[in-house]
Amino acid sequence: MQEKRYDFEVAVIGAGPAGLAAAIAARRQGAKKVIIIERDTAPGGILQQCIHAGFGLSYFQKELTGPEYAGRFIKQAKEEGVELLLDSMVLNIEEDGTILCSNPGKGLVYVRAGAVVLAMGCRERTRFNLRIPGTRPAGVYTAGAAQRLINRQNEMVGKKVVILGSGDIGMIMARRMTLEGAKVEAVVEIMDYLAGLTRNKVQCLDDFDIPLLLGHTVTRITGEYRVEGVWIAQVDEHRRPDLSTERFIACDTLLLSVGLLPENELTRAAGIRMSAATNGPMINQYMQTSRADIFACGNVVHVNDLADNVSAESELAGRSAARYVLEGFPKRNREIPCTAGSGIRYVCPQMLSVREEEDADCKEDQGDGRKIEGCGTITGDREEIRLYFRVKAPGAKTTLTAWCGGRVIAERTVRRVNPGEMEHIDIHAEILTGAEDTEITVEAREVG
Amino acid sequence: MREQEIICTICPAGCHIQVSGQGQDIKSIEGYSCPRGKEYAENEFLCPVRTLTTTVKVDGAEEPLLAVRTAKPIPKSKLFECMDIIRKERFRVPIEQYQVLIKDLAGTGIDLIACSERKGDPYDI
Q: Is the pLDDT reported for residue A372 higher than 60?
């Protein structure tokens, strides 16, 4: 079979919200040839099956459903001339930036790109990640798999349902299954607080009188061919089930909404430095990975709770990738780490690229709009760097502080914090100019 | 006298607002911390509404279903009645985004509209 070879300036892997926003931004930054490679048969990623509303409130100031939100980006991508290679599975990213993928019609396809943006998103954790004991009958689904079957493939997955995990997908599926005629017996959550947004508890569980059992977990699955029921029990403070409280719930379906894992096989194979806290690549403030020509954005970097945040950070990744190809910037400078202090689970970006003094002084323009070669100014980008992070536990009024070398560089107080809702703090890029050996630490302190 | 605790969903603060009253009369409302929260709780007490999002069967497209929603929120009490109507319908391509598929759904005065287009025109290179 004839090998197909294409040349692009920027190649984006994944046509979900992250990939679409990155590709559009790369075009608008001046990259002429931009392609998105997508393994599904249509662009839009997971938003195609997220038929519920709640998207776009911050990005478009309008409440949209998933398909509407994706549709706006798909339309922009077409208008900007972003090319799309669908039904194509990326197998490897070579050292020179060539992406190897397979397509049922074209066979093996090689896409050579000056910069690559990783936007593969995430996968769901399964029964086997949790090691739930019991038999292995049909009827155990991850919530997202059930969502795809019901919302895109017209296949109903069950009639009597228990949902493990109070994440947003789990609660949204509780409503969806109920509207489609199923009975949801309970949503079971191992933590003593809700994993998803309060809005979803109100509109998906309370509206339909679906019980939420906090501090409980599924201890066993029973059933020979099909699920016949699950055993649940309360958990102690170490999240171990207390078997004296075990009770049986008859059901034919168990949905799992127990967390997402960034999908990073390609990233690891490319030898990119990974973060143990996020399971994603470590990135700097330009969304650049430890390989200078590879950028990353969206859930492949860290699992976001709002698609709107994904779109915003992905635009930065797309702009940076285009600038890398057109201007050789961001080049990889010295970097200082950005770490999680007390009360914080992780901070993203994990590293900040230091601006050298000569870079900061360098004039941007040569009269013809071209930048001086090797010049590292960040003129044109925001002078604030946004650090995203998650707190470890829910709390009332909390002060969020960014420290650098023993002094406070940014601080804000919020009315409440929740691990399910991503927080951020902005620091001035100036702090990084000529910064010596140091690190930036973010901490959260409850104040009342 | 009816008493209800309403969790506000306007912002992540999630205030617990206590409302009591009878019929269309609100006697007391407590626990809100902004005017939007007060308005939300009043509406939730008097006539809670929701945007219904679901799918319809479509013939002639690559995928069997199309995402649809009500053009505006409808009374919460009408959700299941609307689902029963929507479930029985079938549509054919081409369908434009925001095309009205069912007018005046279940007597709510609100239309059911398509969230995306369906044309059988895949966007590929």
A: no
- Pairing type for strands A398-404 and A407-414 reads antiparallel
Q: Do A415 and B13 touch (CB under 8 A)?
A: yes
CB pairs under 8 A between A and B: 84
pLDDT digits (tens, 9 = 90+) for B74-112: 999 999 999 999 999 999 999 999 999 999 999 999 999
Whether B4 and chain A come into contact, CB under 8 Å, resolves to: no
Total number of domains constituting chain B? 2
Longest dimension (CA), chain A: 77
Q: Does B1 touch chain A (CB under 8 A)?
A: no
pLDDT tens digits along A297-324: 999 999 998 899 999 999 999 999 999 9
Please identify, among B30, B46, B62, the residue that sits at the C-terminal boundary of a domain: B46
pLDDT for residue A434: 66
CB-nearest partner of A52 from B53, B65, B122: B53
Task: Fold for A126-258, please state it.
Answer: FAD/NAD(P)-binding domain (3.50.50)
CA distance A283 to chain B (A): 28
Tokens 């050579």 — which residue?
A112
Q: For the residues A401-415, what does the mean pLDDT come to? A: 91
Name every residue in A having a CB less than 8 A away from some CB of B: 35, 41-43, 51-53, 63, 65-68, 71, 74, 78, 83-87, 150-154, 179-180, 197-199, 201-203, 206-207, 415-416, 418, 421
Provide the pLDDT for residue B122. 52
ipTM for the predicted complex comes to: 0.91
The reported pLDDT for the residue numbered A370 is: 39
pLDDT higher than threshold 60 for residue A250: yes
Q: Could you tell me the CATH number of the domain that includes residue B62?
A: 3.10.530.10
d(CA A258, CA A109): 36
Please report residues of B whose CB lies closer than 8 A to that of A154. 55, 57, 64-65
* Cβ neighbourhood burial of A343 (10 Å; 0-12, 13-18, 19+): buried
pLDDT at A142 over 80: yes
Predicted confidence at residue A191, as pLDDT, reads 93
How far is B116 from chain A, CA to nearest CA, in Å?
6
What stretch(es) of chain A map to CATH 3.50.50.60?
1-124+260-331, 126-258
A333-448: CATH class: mainly beta
Which residue from B minimizes the CA distance to A420?
A: B12
- The domain defined by A1-124+260-331 folds into FAD/NAD(P)-binding domain (3.50.50)
